[in-house]
Design a protein that fits this description.
The protein has one domain (11-132). 61% of the residues lie in helices and 6% in strands. It has helices spanning 17-20, 24-35, 49-53, 62-74, 92-95, 101-112, 117-160, 162-172, and strands at 44-46, 78-81, 86-89. The protein is elongated and about 85 Å long.
Length: 173
């Protein structure tokens, strides 16, 4: 069972110079990295080599998989920690930013559990600007909501007295 019901893959991926530079096998492997059952909201996860190579997943020999993964690393699409078998999807939060405070909290919890210290630090560094941008968007929405409410409160006495406004308009007209 997947940690995610679906993964968002931008159609712009097919126009990406980094993706286009990959071989067919490397492209398939990268698509696997961003859509497999281990991926979660943090974009950094544990993936054993032999699991990825299995018939139910990539169905590749280990040397072919390692070469395809190396191509993805070289293209700057992923990072990998061989000591912990951890994959990090580069620019994950550009395409999958936090959408709410609760979601952001969940992402942070997942990042904190990453075994690879180096990739955990990279994930946190990538997450923070997007987290800050989400906070700014939410603050702007709250300000806009307060301003709309203030405008409604100012107009409501006039709106409640439409008969008076209409009477005055007819008297002038």
């Amino acid at each position: 069972m997947s940690a995610r019901d679906f993964s968002k893959v931008s159609p712009a991926l097919w126009r990406s110079p980094r993706f286009q530079a990959l071989s067919d096998r490397e492209q398939k492997t990268f698509l696997y990295f961003i859509t497999n059952s281990h991926i979660d909201s943090s974009g950094v996860y544990h993936l054993p080599d032999l699991y990825a190579c299995s018939k139910s997943d990539l169905n590749m020999d280990l040397p072919d998989y390692e070469a395809a993964r190396a191509g993805c690393i070289e293209a700057g699409l992923i990072d990998y920690d061989p000591d912990h078998s951890v994959i990090l999807i580069d620019r994950w939060f550009k395409h999958n930013p936090p959408t709410s405070p609760d979601y952001a909290t969940g992402v942070l919890r997942r990042i904190e559990k990453v075994e690879s210290e180096r990739l955990r630090a990279r994930a946190l560094a990538a997450f923070e600007p997007e987290h800050e941008a989400m906070r700014a968007r939410l603050a702007e929405k709250e300000i806009a909501k307060a301003l709309r409410k203030a405008n409604v409160d100012v107009k409501s006495p006039i709106g409640a007295n439409d008969r008076l406004v209409n009477t005055l308009s007819r008297a002038r007209g």
